[in-house]
């Protein structure tokens, strides 16, 4: 019963989060992203952090089996793996590798402290899952594909061959939760009187945390999948309140993994359907070729309005990629440089940061992009435009252009007459760096007007 | 000249009288080869097989002519657009079967692919069973003699023929364009000689321009003897306040007894799909008849017309047109009044005058000009244009409109990318102020995106 409940709820979360990463339904299940542990820590979202910790203390690591998309994804892989012939009972209890686990957590904390972004992005569970889905939906660069593919390969192998080993020994979130999970109020308990010592629970426990010989469960690693409850033929395992006086009962669990195969499949199908759609885009007929825009060298990079400063943004961002999925203007994309690996950055080659859009600030679960309202957008300065007259069509008399002036939402770019030529000039006080000018400049592949980021955003006016 | 277009004034008179008397009916089956055509209107559901042949104003040609500017397209293995030759053949066969025997193409149509496809389809039939018209489309220079002759000769290869029935100086606007493209380089003398030699059976021109320009062309008639002239004519232009040119041109040609070929009877399809309130007015008179049929009947009711061209893409277009032209019912006085009202109503919608001829393409900056205009007009016509936020269902309509915008036209080819180089201006036969209209679309979409509408 509990196991079915877990599967149902986990499926809901996995599907919801997957759709979020595909870019569907922020208004309906956007809250699921806000329940994620690591982003909440970075967002200093104390209510959520306290909630998760309390739940863990009360019910064990159910977060890992219900809410964490990477955990549920691994359950799906593990379920597939255990459907192979003779692989139903492929697990065996082993002691926790506490040193490994603590070392990874330590490294992770150091990485957070010193901003070693690539390391965080690689092992943060929520980000890892987001990266995989995002890359299936919209492979932005070879680096992104390679990193996401690598992540998928590693996670898949762990789940296929070793169940929840990743969650038990590597995942830093798992390690933090294990501290409380160890003492959780409710937990699976083995009733020694009923237990027939068959060992089935241990052989099927994907977390390899049931010591059937001693009839003990390692609650630090148990992710409360409740499989053992169903698998025990003797009915000796119960999920019950354990803070009462020790009855001497011992817990057992066992490990047939049976999670949301359907969710995984649906996510995959949704992803491939999406790919199919994007390749079926309309082909040109009788059109002049339009050279793709090149991303210019920027003195400082661009991060979205609401992030305050480049440093704030990158210190909080977990590289989950949710904002990238949400961006309807194709502005946000993952960075490929090592320092900010997979964390988003902005580019105006495919679109620009439109005045009415605040989606990224609404979806960010980590507080890297704080919520802003559309009315604020026209005054939040994230960069400044600069002109390269050599490329300008108006300056070169190629066209009566004035696209930059026409589309500037703040009136910062204006066309003036100088020496018999029309040229664009920029009022850097009014310019907010939205990139309308850069994106709509007809000069290709490099725009004649480009935007440089500023390290600390500010409010104009 | 091999032969002249013959047409008896007597018959025209006869027909006018006939119309006056009966107010309905068809010009005498006696005069025309319209055997098998019934005299009933409202035959929308009638099977095409039973239709017989289209009527004729002149003995040589069916009143419905086939325009080859809008052949159906498919993608080949590489994803490039090519003409769906199989469908073309099928439609050409059906057309010929019903007496549609005038086929109008040009070297520039469908990115240069129309002539060959038309030739391929027609070549499967005896040469004397069809008439083909093509043009010298040298509008965008260089205006050398050799370039013109090369284009002329290529048409023969494409059409797989040794004579062309109707040859047009493509899209003239008056003496200046004629001088530049045909007089100074000697091409007109070459073409006159070709007519003398019989390789051009009839020489004429197609016209887009002002009344003065037309007069200039007519002044040349004494010298060159235009065998026919192709003009734009439809009830919307005819009755619009600034567009009395078509009536003027038709009247002049009628006086000079020059056969008239009609282009844009539907304004690139705009008159086939008119706003619902206006269509209702037509349906109230003829519930079964399509809006397009009214537009065709308007043109076809004028006796000096040699044929009315229709660029039919789908078999359904052809079938609907066959129903109109086989059971042809000329308009009555009350019908003209009705179309005048509809034309006035259309004016209130401020549609963009684009007929999707694509002469403006390719835009050097990649803008999909006709695509944008068609998109904009379509939403106005269908009533899916968002007029104000007070409108019912505003959010949904706004979202749908913007989604459709991105779906119909690639982002980099949308209106906001126009940089006003003005190269399109001289290419548009409808004299649309293209950059201004693009800006109108851009402003509208931008306001809609920002929620200012």
Brief rundown of the structure:
Helices cover 44% and strands 11% of the residues of chain A. Chain A has 461 residues and is an alpha+beta fold. In chain A, helix 9 (125-137) crosses helix 10 (142-162).
Question: How is this structure best described in words?
Answer:
The complex is a heterodimer of chains A (461) and B (453). Chain A is of the alpha+beta class and 461 residues long. Chain A contains 21 helices and 10 strands. Chain A has helices spanning 2-22, 26-34, 37-42, 46-59, 62-66, 69-82, 98-114, 117-123, 125-137, 142-162, 165-169, 172-181, 200-204, 227-231, 261-279, 310-316, 322-326, 359-363, 374-377, 403-407, 436-440; strands at residues 186-190, 210-211, 216-217, 237-241, 332-334, 344-346, 380-387, 413-418, 421-426, 449-459. In chain A, the strands form 5 sheets. In chain A, strands 1-4 form a two-stranded antiparallel sheet. Chain A has a two-stranded antiparallel ribbon with strand order 2-3. In chain A, a hairpin with a 4-residue loop joins strand 2 and strand 3 (216-217). The longest helix of chain A has 21 residues, at 2-22. Chain A is elongated, with a radius of gyration of 26 Å. Mean pLDDT of chain A is 85; it is low at 247-285. Mean pLDDT of chain B is 88; it is low at 8-42. Chain B has helices spanning 9-22, 85-97, 114-123, 145-159, 175-183, 187-197, 211-219, 221-224, 235-239, 245-255, 276-285, 291-300, 315-326, 333-347, 369-382, 394-408, 434-449; strands at 64-67, 73-75, 81-83, 102-104, 131-136, 164-172, 200-207, 228-232, 260-263, 305-310. Chain B starts with 8 loop residues before the first helix and ends with a helix. With 453 residues, chain B is of the alpha/beta class. Chain B has an 8-stranded parallel beta barrel, surrounded by 6 helices. In chain B, strands 2-3 form a two-stranded antiparallel ribbon. Chain B is built from 17 helices and 10 strands. Helix content of chain B is 43%, strand content 11%. The chains are: A alpha+beta (461), B alpha/beta (453). At the A-B interface, helix 20 of A face helix 17 of B.
């Amino acid at each position: 019963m509990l196991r079915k409940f877990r599967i149902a709820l986990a499926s809901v979360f996995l599907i919801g989060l997957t759709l979020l990463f595909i870019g569907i339904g922020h208004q309906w299940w956007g809250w699921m992203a806000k329940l994620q542990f690591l982003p909440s820590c970075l967002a200093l979202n104390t209510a959520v952090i306290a909630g998760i910790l309390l739940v863990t203390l009360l019910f064990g690591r159910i977060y890992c089996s219900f809410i964490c998309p990477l955990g549920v994804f691994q359950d799906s892989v593990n379920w597939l793996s255990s459907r192979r012939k003779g692989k139903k009972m492929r697990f065996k209890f082993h002691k926790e590798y506490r040193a490994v686990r603590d070392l990874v957590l330590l490294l992770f904390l150091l990485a957070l402290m010193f901003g070693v972004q690539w390391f965080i992005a690689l092992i943060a569970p929520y980000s890892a899952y987001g990266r995989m889905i995002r890359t299936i939906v919209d492979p932005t660069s070879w680096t992104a594909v390679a990193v996401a593919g690598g992540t998928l390969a590693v996670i898949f192998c762990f789940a296929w061959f070793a169940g929840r080993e990743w969650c038990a020994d590597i995942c830093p979130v798992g390690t933090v939760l294990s501290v409380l999970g160890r003492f959780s109020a409710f937990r699976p308990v083995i009733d020694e009187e009923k237990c027939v010592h068959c060992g089935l629970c241990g052989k099927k426990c994907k977390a390899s945390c049931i010591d059937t010989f001693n009839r003990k469960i390692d609650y630090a690693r148990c992710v409360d999948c409740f499989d053992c409850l169903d698998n025990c033929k003797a009915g000796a395992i119960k999920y019950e309140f354990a803070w009462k006086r020790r009855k001497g009962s011992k817990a057992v669990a066992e490990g047939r993994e049976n999670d949301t195969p359907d969710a995984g499949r649906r996510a995959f199908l949704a992803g491939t359907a999406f790919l199919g759609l994007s390749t079926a885009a309309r082909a040109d007929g009788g059109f002049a070729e339009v050279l793709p825009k090149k991303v210019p060298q920027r003195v400082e990079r661009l991060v979205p309005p609401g992030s305050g400063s480049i440093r704030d943004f990158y210190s909080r961002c977990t590289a989950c990629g949710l904002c990238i999925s949400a961006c309807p203007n194709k502005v946000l994309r993952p960075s490929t440089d090592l320092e900010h690996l997979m964390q988003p950055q902005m580019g105006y080659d495919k679109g620009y940061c439109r005045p009415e859009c605040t989606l990224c600030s609404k979806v960010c679960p980590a507080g890297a992009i704080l919520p802003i309202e559309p009315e604020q957008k026209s005054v939040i300065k994230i960069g400044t435009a600069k002109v390269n007259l050599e490329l300008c069509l108006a300056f070169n008399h190629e066209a009566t252009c004035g696209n930059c002036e026409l589309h500037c939402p703040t009136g910062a770019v204006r066309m003036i007459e100088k020496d018999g030529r029309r040229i664009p000039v920029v009022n850097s006080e009014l310019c907010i760096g939205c990139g309308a000018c850069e994106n709509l400049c007809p000069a290709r592949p490099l725009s004649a007007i480009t935007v440089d980021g500023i390290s600390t955003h500010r409010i104009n006016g | 000249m091999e032969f002249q277009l013959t047409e008896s004034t007597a018959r025209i008179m006869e027909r006018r009288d006939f119309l006056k008397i009966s107010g309905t009916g068809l010009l005498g089956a006696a005069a025309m080869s319209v055997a098998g055509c019934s005299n009933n209107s409202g035959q929308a559901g009638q099977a095409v097989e039973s239709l017989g042949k289209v009527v004729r104003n002149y003995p040589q040609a069916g009143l419905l002519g086939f325009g080859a500017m809008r052949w159906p397209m498919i993608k080949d293995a590489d994803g490039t657009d090519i003409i769906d030759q199989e469908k073309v053949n099928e439609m050409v066969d059906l057309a010929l079967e019903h007496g549609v025997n005038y086929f109008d193409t040009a070297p520039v149509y469908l990115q240069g692919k129309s002539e060959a496809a038309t030739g391929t389809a027609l070549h499967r039939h005896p040469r004397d069973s069809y008439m083909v018209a093509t043009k010298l489309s040298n509008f965008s220079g260089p205006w050398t003699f050799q370039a013109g002759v090369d284009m002329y000769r290529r048409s023969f290869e494409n059409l797989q023929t040794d004579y062309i029935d109707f040859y047009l100086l493509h899209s003239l606007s008056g003496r200046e364009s004629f001088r530049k493209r045909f007089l100074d380089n000697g091409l007109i003398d070459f073409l006159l000689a070709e007519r003398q030699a019989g390789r051009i059976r009839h020489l004429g021109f197609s016209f887009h321009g002002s009344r003065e320009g037309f007069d200039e062309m007519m002044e040349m008639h004494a010298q060159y003897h235009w065998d026919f002239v192709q003009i734009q004519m439809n009830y919307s232009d005819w009755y619009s306040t600034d567009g009395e040119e078509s009536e003027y041109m038709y009247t002049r040609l009628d006086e000079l007894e020059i056969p008239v070929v009609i282009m844009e009877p539907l304004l690139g399809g705009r008159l086939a799909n008119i706003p619902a309130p206006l269509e209702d007015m037509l349906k109230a008179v003829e519930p079964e008849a399509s809006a397009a049929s009214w537009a065709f009947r308007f043109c076809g009711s004028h006796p000096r017309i040699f044929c009315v061209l229709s660029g039919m893409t789908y078999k359904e277009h052809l079938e609907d047109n066959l129903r109109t032209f086989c059971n042809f019912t000329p308009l009555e006085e009350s019908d003209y009044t009705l179309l005048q009202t509809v034309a006035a109503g259309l004016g209130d919608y401020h549609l963009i005058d684009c007929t999707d001829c694509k002469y403006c393409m390719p835009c050097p900056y990649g803008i999909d000009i006709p695509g944008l205009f068609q998109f904009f007009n379509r939403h106005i016509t269908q009533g899916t244009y968002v007029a104000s936020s007070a409108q019912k269902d505003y959010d949904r309509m706004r979202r749908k409109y913007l989604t459709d915008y991105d779906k119909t036209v690639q982002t980099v080819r949308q209106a906001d990318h126009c940089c006003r180089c003005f190269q399109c201006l001289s290419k548009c036969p409808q004299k649309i102020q293209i950059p201004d209209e693009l800006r109108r679309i851009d402003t509208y979409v931008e306001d809609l995106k920002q929620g200012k509408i």
